[in-house]
User: What shape does this take?
Amino acid sequence: MKKITVSPQRSPCPIANTLDLIGDKWTLLVLRDLFAGKSRYGDFQQSPEQIPTNILADRLKKLVKNGLAEKTPYQDNPVRYAYQLTTTGRSLLPVLQTIGDWGLQHIKGAQARIKLQ
Assistant: This one.
C-alpha cells in the first residue's frame, strides 16, 4: 500500500499526521457518507448535517488528492463525478466504526442511522 505524504508535516506523531488528513468534522462526515454508499455530490448534500457546498467540494478534492477516494465521470455535459473510496480510504472503516461505537455508548441521544460498509 502506497504511503500518503502529509505536507507540511508538523511532527512525526502518527496521530497528528492522521488528524491533518481526516481530523476535521466535515471530512469525517464525508468519509461516513462514502462508507454508507453515497457517491454523487447531490447525495452528500442530502446529509442531515447540511455541509456547505464549498466545504463539500474542498473535502472531496482533498480526499482524492490524498488517495483516500477516487472520482470517475458519470456524465459528460456538464461533467459530473461519482466518488468512491480507494483501498487506503476503505482501511479507515474500523476507525469510523470505533468512533461511532464510542458515541453510541457515551453520548445521550446518539443513534446509528446508517450502516457503514
Q: What stands out?
A: The domain at 14-106 is CATH 1.10.10.10 (Arc Repressor Mutant, subunit A). Strands lie at 69-75, 80-85. DSSP finds six helices and two strands in the chain. The first helix runs from residue 14 to 22.
